[in-house]
Amino acid sequence: MKGNNRAKVGQFRSLVEPGVLPCTHIGHGVRVVLDWDYHRLAHAANQVIVDLTADYPRAARLYTSLLTDPQTLASWDLTDYMAVERLGYNDHGQMHAQVVAANALRLLDLLQTAGVTPAVIDSGAGTPEDAFVVVLAAALLHDIGTQVAREGHEAYSVMLAQPVLARLLPDLYPDPVQAQVLTGFILAGAGHAGGGCRRCGRWCRYDPGPGPGGLRPG
Fold this sequence. Notes:
By secondary structure, this protein is an all-alpha fold. The chain has 8 helices and 2 strands.
């Protein structure tokens, strides 16, 4: 890869535009080198997220909170360092999280428009806005466990996301019961663990583990 196509994350600060949230694709305690295409893709994803959360103030506020939260920013950068610099993988930090979040919100918007009811609403836990909060937060935090280890990173993501949510959600949801219930939905998404029987690849009677949503096969 040519040198002029690569840059330290810390150099991305120069692309900040007036009136726009400061670009947070910068180094937070570690040095990460990524292709500029990741940066451009993340900025496109950022605009999608801003547009889709425009009608959902809580989701928009949570997005801003995560992008300005030092702990979350450091987690994203350390995740990228472990994935890119140590393991030789592609980007798994903030930029990847934003791209995943943008696509997840697009899917949620399409599904709700088509009349599909998200589990957050169907269960009585929340509203369409709360569904956007859940999907957004889960997508943005789903890979931060890679800073600990790639194998089993889904579980580590859940453990690292929980204290972040414990700090940020109460500002959006003063009711501790609702905040805890939505935290559970977010962590279920952030865990994003695949599963199924080792024999057939689906949830079946040979697999002892829980199925999707914590339900065991009947």
